[in-house]
């Protein structure tokens, strides 16, 4: 679910402007999973544009506090959300931790890096939601450390039904700055894509794992 419509449209426009999101239905990308996709999203680019990263920081800080209440800790999912997560934590004056995909192989073998006490309220910051599996693995790691997860806030979600199911099953509320639906509407409005291309992009979102396989 998006925080609000105005933020969703503005975020989508900014991501398109800096090519953090690329739309190419005629020459689709191949994801690491092997899926063919007419969209590629790299929100790490946000950090390279000061005015845009500040906008993302401020929208996260404002909407996280409004939606979840002020948590005790902000957690970022490694590696894509570490930078943005730190910015949000700094804005809210909160401690920050980050979550590795798996425990470190040596030393203290931490998966959660930073100081976290049992029972603390945590909001998790993520850059991108596809199926939600890696994001929810971070939630599980935090819960294993005794954290109380208030919810997750992400820059962008593709809005896959499987992600909605995964978050519901994990009992985690997800809110995003923008999503696929608002992106496509904005992209047509600003003439990044045609209405025919929009139809192709909408078809992909219905069955992304099989799209483009003939």
UniProtKB/TrEMBL annotation:
- Enzyme Commission identifier(s): 2.4.2.10
Q: Which domain of life is it from?
A: Bacteria
Q: TM segments?
A: none
One Gene Ontology MF term: magnesium ion binding
Cofactor section: Mg(2+)
| GO BP terms in the entry | 'de novo' UMP biosynthetic process; pyrimidine nucleobase biosynthetic process
Report the protein name in the record: Orotate phosphoribosyltransferase
Taxonomy, top ranks, is:
Bacteria, Pseudomonadati, Bacteroidota, Flavobacteriia, Flavobacteriales
Q: Which gene encodes it?
A: pyrE
């Amino acid at each position: 679910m998006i925080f609000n419509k105005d933020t969703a449209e503005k975020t989508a426009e900014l991501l398109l402007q800096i090519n953090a999101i690329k739309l190419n239905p005629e020459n689709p990308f191949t994801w690491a999973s092997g899926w063919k996709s007419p969209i590629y999203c790299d929100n790490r680019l946000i950090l390279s544009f000061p005015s845009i990263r500040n906008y993302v920081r401020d929208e996260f800080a404002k909407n996280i506090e409004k939606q979840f209440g002020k948590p005790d800790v902000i957690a970022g999912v490694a590696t894509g959300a570490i930078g943005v997560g730190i910015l949000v934590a700094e804005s809210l004056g909160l401690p920050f931790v980050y979550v590795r995909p798996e425990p470190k192989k040596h030393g203290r073998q931490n998966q959660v890096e930073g100081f976290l006490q049992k029972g603390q309220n945590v909001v998790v910051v993520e850059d991108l939601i596809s199926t939600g599996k890696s994001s929810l693995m971070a939630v599980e790691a935090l819960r294993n450390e005794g954290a109380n997860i208030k919810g997750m806030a992400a820059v962008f979600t593709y809005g896959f039904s499987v992600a909605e199911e995964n978050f519901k099953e994990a009992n985690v509320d997800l809110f995003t700055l923008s999503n696929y639906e608002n992106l496509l509407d904005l992209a047509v409005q600003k003439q990044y894509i045609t209405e025919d291309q929009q139809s192709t992009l909408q078809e992909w979102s219905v069955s992304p794992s099989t799209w483009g396989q003939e």
